Amino acid sequence: MQGDTLILEHGMNLHILHECNGLVPFLLYLAAILAYPTEFKYKLLWSLIGYLLLMLINMVRIYAITLVVMDSPDLFTISHDWVGRYGVGLFTLLFFFWFTNRVPVIQEKESSIK
Asked: What is the pTM of this model?
């Protein structure tokens, strides 16, 4: 490692950008949770769970991309752009789906004004 660049033995360098930190998928997940009609305690709990899971998945993603590129540098685009990005996006949607199926929905009360 040299700064935020991983220097591989075969001469390829992987520059890990700030955008690769997994924050964007988490913020999308957080926005969806905050907009969902449930109690705040569930939103807080599931936000923390989602943050931990998405950060773990992002670390696994970066590690897997590194392993693929070390073995086959020509597969970087497929492993990073297609499998990595869309995989994290899919997991983000699955976590939100999991959340929506585990928390109670607050029902809106009918207005008494007629």
From this structure: 0.79
Query: Counting beta carbons within 10 angstroms of the beta carbon of residue 57, is it exposed (0 to 12), middle (13 to 18) or buried (19 or more)?
Result: middle
pLDDT value, residue 71: 86
Q: What is the pLDDT of residue 20?
A: 72
The answer to whether the CB of 65 falls within 8 A of the CB of 6 is: no
For 82, phi then psi, to 5°, come to -90, -55
43 burial (CB, 10 Å; 0-12 / 13-18 / 19+) is middle
Helix (H) or strand (E) holding 9: none
Residues in the chain: 114
Which of 16-25, 27-36, 44-53, 97-106 has the least mean pLDDT?
16-25
CB 1 within 8 A of CB 7: yes
φ and ψ at 2, to 5 degrees?
Answer: -135, 100
Span 64-81, pLDDT tens digits: 988 888 888 888 889 888
